[in-house]
């Protein structure tokens, strides 16, 4: 059996890649992909813990979280699409009407 | 046997939301105005049902939903805010062909917040959180031809989804170390979490996740942009409703589930509270857009409420909880006034730019006496002047902070309140002492009704605080087990 630590290391790596992406990427779609990576890192954790704790609720949680991540992506793409229609680009660096 | 009557407010709202969504298919744009009244009636029914079940203390669905004093208190906060926003939106959505979507999303976001208030299990809490967040992302971008609104929605969406990812990651560690997702269950097994470094990681992730929703500095950068760009009625919902959802979730998770780890998070919240109120107030001073100024003031108010986490005595918790109710009325009212002024400016001049600029408040007392008076009460309440709701809640919160020995925290908070008076008084000066440009305007009736209701809320809590304080203490007892 693969030790639990390996799963945690994997999920931490995936989470860090996602966090790095959120902070460095400027393209709206890439930002969405980074968020998905972070959510999936949490899902890996939940499933791994669920199997090691011998408790099903973690896997139930993952089913809910996958569905919510899909809904979140839909809203995100809808927002990006209307921005694209207005400006012909989705580079978040150029979206800066509101600032102090 | 589950007693579904206890969930009646949520069920009523769900049915009304679905009915509005369906009815929108068959109604022409002209007749969609009636949908706002339907939503308002649904919310009113839900409010009455919630008040009717005030004394209930039960858990449902194998202990995943709890109906107690705390959940009922916050449900009433959420429903009141939504009700005020709905009444005002009847005017805002007039003649818009997407009116049905607007009210459906508004009701769904309210249901999400109510589920969070009742959640006794992390799965339920997360699902409710996401339901409210997803609906408000779409509402912030409701004006899809307006670049500012879309920008607000995009920023809110990116930061919001980042915060839910952080929160889920934190939750996954909590679940892993305690082996359960039920909040009382976690409280029983939290010893394992406190003993391992993973507990610290989980606390950091959860503070960051909820901090984004509560707009605590340094997680606040989205809030001013979103509140300024979103339609003003939605800014009211976000500042007064959605932010409180972060607080009730954080109350349940930190105070009940992770109470054993309080040495880890108590100081963190004290520091966050201090920098949040200071930065919010200092930056608000230099704003020329009233909407953005209110956004920063709302950041500062979140700092005051966060004191409750640092002090953690029953009285401080009651103060924090009462503050969320007062803040809900004050902030909704203030944002609705900005919405009315925006309406007035647009009806003066169709192509007006910067409709939320402070200059538009010049001589408001002559142009719209009622609105100007209400705004004066709201801003004085926000800065904590008696006899308003803001004074009562600040008094309880700050005096309990002093009692528990954190004098420095109370001093900083009081200095901040004094500082905030500067920019609040500036609005009053603009409204009452500067000459008016343009003649008298009568407020559209829905806006006027909503503003008067908010005004009544602020004054009633201020003049007759005993029942509300008692009620907030009942709610705080739930957290002190």
What does the secondary structure layout of this molecule look like, with pairings?
The complex is a heterodimer of chains A (100) and B (481).
Chain A lengths: L3 H21 L3 H26 L3 H31 L13
Chain B lengths: L7 H19 L6 H20 L5 E3 L4 E3 L1 H24 L6 H20 L3 H19 L6 H32 L4 H13 L1 H18 L7 H8 L2 H26 L4 H24 L4 H22 L2 H35 L15 H4 L1 H15 L5 H15 L3 H27 L11 H19 L2 H14 L2
Antiparallel strand pairs in B: 1-2
Query: Can you count the helices of chain B?
Result: 19
Residues in helices of chain B, as a percent range: over 70%
Helical amount among residues of chain A, as a percent range? over 70%
Class of secondary structure makeup of chain A: mainly alpha
Biggest beta sheet summary of chain B:
2 strands, antiparallel
Q: What value does the Rg of chain A take, in angstroms?
A: 17 Å
- CATH first level of chain A: Mainly Alpha
Give the overall pLDDT of chain B as a whole number: 91
Q: What is the arithmetic mean of pLDDT of chain A? A: 91
**N-to-C span of chain A:** 54 Å
Class derived from helix and strand content of chain B: mainly alpha
Total individual domains of chain A: 1
CATH fold-level name of chain A: Helix Hairpins
**Biggest sheet of chain A, in brief?**
none
Strand content of chain B: under 5%
- As a whole number of angstroms, the C-alpha radius of gyration of chain B is 21 Å
User: Uncertain regions of chain B: pLDDT < 50 for 5+ in a row?
Assistant: none
Assembly state (oligomeric) = heterodimer
Outline of chain B, from the CA principal axes? globular
Spatial sequence of strands, sheet with the most strands of chain B: 1-2
């Amino acid at each position: 059996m693969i030790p639990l630590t390996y799963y945690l290391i994997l999920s931490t790596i995936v989470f860090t890649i996602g966090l790095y992406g959120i902070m460095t990427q400027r393209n709206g779609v890439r930002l969405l992909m980074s968020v998905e990576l972070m959510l999936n890192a949490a899902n890996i954790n939940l499933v791994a813990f669920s199997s090691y704790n011998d408790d099903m609720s973690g896997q139930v949680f993952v089913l809910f979280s996958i569905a919510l991540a899909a809904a979140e992506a839909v809203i995100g793409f809808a927002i990006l699409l209307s921005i694209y229609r207005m400006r012909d680009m989705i580079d978040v660096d150029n979206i800066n009407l509101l600032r102090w | 046997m589950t007693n579904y009557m206890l969930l009646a407010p949520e069920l009523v709202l769900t049915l009304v939301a679905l009915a509005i969504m369906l009815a929108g298919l068959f109604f022409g744009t002209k007749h969609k105005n009636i949908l706002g009244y339907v939503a308002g009636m649904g919310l009113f029914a839900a409010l009455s049902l919630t008040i009717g079940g005030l004394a209930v203390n039960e858990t449902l669905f194998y202990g995943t939903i709890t109906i107690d004093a705390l959940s009922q208190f916050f449900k009433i906060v959420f429903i009141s805010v939504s009700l005020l926003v709905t009444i005002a939106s009847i005017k805002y959505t007039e003649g818009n062909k997407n009116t049905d979507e607007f009210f459906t999303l508004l009701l769904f976001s309210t249901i999400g917040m109510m589920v969070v208030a009742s959640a006794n299990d992390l799965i339920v809490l997360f699902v409710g959180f996401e339901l409210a967040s997803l609906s408000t992302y779409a509402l912030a971008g409701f004006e899809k031809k307006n670049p500012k609104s879309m920008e607000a929605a995009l920023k809110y969406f990116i930061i919001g989804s980042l915060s839910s990812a952080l929160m889920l990651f934190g939750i996954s560690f909590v679940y892993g170390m305690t082996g359960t997702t039920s909040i009382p269950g976690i409280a029983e097994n939290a010893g394992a979490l406190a003993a391992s470094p993973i507990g610290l990681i989980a606390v950091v992730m959860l503070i960051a996740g909820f901090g984004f929703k509560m707009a605590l500095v340094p997680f606040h950068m989205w809030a001013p942009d979103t509140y300024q760009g979103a339609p003003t009625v939605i800014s009211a919902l976000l500042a007064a409703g959605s932010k409180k959802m972060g607080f009730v979730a954080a109350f349940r998770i930190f105070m009940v589930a992770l109470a054993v780890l309080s040495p880890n998070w108590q100081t963190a919240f004290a520091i966050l509270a201090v920098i949040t109120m200071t930065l919010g107030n200092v930056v608000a001073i230099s704003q020329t857009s009233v909407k953005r100024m209110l956004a920063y003031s709302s950041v500062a108010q979140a700092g005051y409420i966060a004191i409750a986490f640092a002090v953690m005595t029953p009285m401080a918790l009651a103060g924090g909880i009462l503050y969320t109710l007062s803040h809900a009325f004050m902030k909704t009212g203030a944002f609705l006034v900005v919405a009315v002024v925006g309406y007035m400016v647009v009806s003066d001049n169709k192509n007006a730019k910067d409709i939320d600029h402070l200059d538009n408040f010049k001589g408001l007392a002559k142009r719209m006496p009622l609105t100007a008076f209400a705004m004066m009460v709201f801003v004085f309440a926000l800065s904590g002047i008696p006899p308003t709701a803001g004074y009562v809640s600040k008094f309880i919160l700050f005096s309990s902070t002093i009692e528990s020995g954190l004098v420095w925290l109370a001093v900083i908070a009081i200095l901040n309140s004094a500082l905030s008076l500067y920019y609040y008084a500036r609005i009053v000066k603009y409204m009452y002492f500067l000459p008016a440009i343009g003649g008298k305007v009568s407020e559209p009736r829905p806006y006027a009704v909503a503003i008067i209701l908010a005004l009544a809320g602020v004054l009633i809590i201020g003049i007759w605080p005993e029942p509300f304080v008692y009620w907030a203490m009942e709610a705080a007892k739930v957290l002190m087990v």
